[in-house]
Amino acid sequence: MPYVNIKITRDGATKEQKAELIKGATDLLERVLSKAPASTYVVIDEVDPENWGAGGVSVKELRR
Amino acid sequence: MPYVNIKITRDGATKEQKAELIKGATDLLERVLSKAPASTYVVIDEVDPENWGAGGVSVKELRR
Amino acid sequence: MPYVNIKITRDGATKEQKAELIKGATDLLERVLSKAPASTYVVIDEVDPENWGAGGVSVKELRR
Amino acid sequence: MPYVNIKITRDGATKEQKAELIKGATDLLERVLSKAPASTYVVIDEVDPENWGAGGVSVKELRR
Amino acid sequence: MPYVNIKITRDGATKEQKAELIKGATDLLERVLSKAPASTYVVIDEVDPENWGAGGVSVKELRR
Amino acid sequence: MPYVNIKITRDGATKEQKAELIKGATDLLERVLSKAPASTYVVIDEVDPENWGAGGVSVKELRR
Asked: What domain range is E23 assigned to?
């Protein structure tokens, strides 16, 4: 009954890419721990670059 | 001092329904563990169906 | 497909009390949003009072 | 390699204030635990007042 | 700068299996979104079966 | 009503250091956003180095 949460910056990930993340994470849990795919939930959070910090500054600032 | 996080897909839950979730979760902690209602925080996250996966596909896809 | 996370301080909640929290949160989602009980996951985190702060001090300190 | 998540109600925190939260949390981890700033991630979640409950009612309701 | 959190029930996942989850999640983010592996954090939470509920009962109870 | 979650590897942070993190995070929210200290919750999670990955390997492995 795994639950996977993937947080990424909101940068235009497409519906197809998000579908691949969901499929890939579910497959990973099945391959490594034999978890039934039906029981795996995946939640993707897309975070505004202004709200994600690394090294003490926001990703928005980092990319300027 | 409980903290409750409820994640649901974003499907048009109304303000009244969300108020019921907040009230219900707070009451639950009071009833079962005698937690003072004033000390319970509840945060509801509404997740885009495209960003929630189950069984390896997004909920958006599941519902097609 | 709700996911509920309940964080409480580790204070000796019994197996029965935790079962009531699981049942109660699942019922709440069914009652308010008609979510199928089978699709609701509940995860309870019991946090060391030394690791939970409120008002700027740990709950362990608060209780002294 | 710390990860800090700050949840606040969505109340018009400015870009500058969020930058201060990121800087402050990163500094805190460096000062207290000597964590390299480059290794600290900070994610700020701004939660709709309708989706945040305290004392059994939403913050939106509390503020009326 | 992705952050991935994997929650599983505590069921004796080995060090090697957990290393595979870390490697697999990091590879997934690189393959799908070209995220630099060095920037991906993965945190695995192993949850007591007594603290994880599905369908209104704990996983511990489900398995009896 | 802020909620702050700090995740660090379990490396022997002392009770005093954790108290400083709680105090520091609470002060930060007061200083930047004028949040009343009494309303800020801080939860510290100490994660086994075997369960935290960066760059595709566990922190435990990274430190060997």
From this structure: 3-62
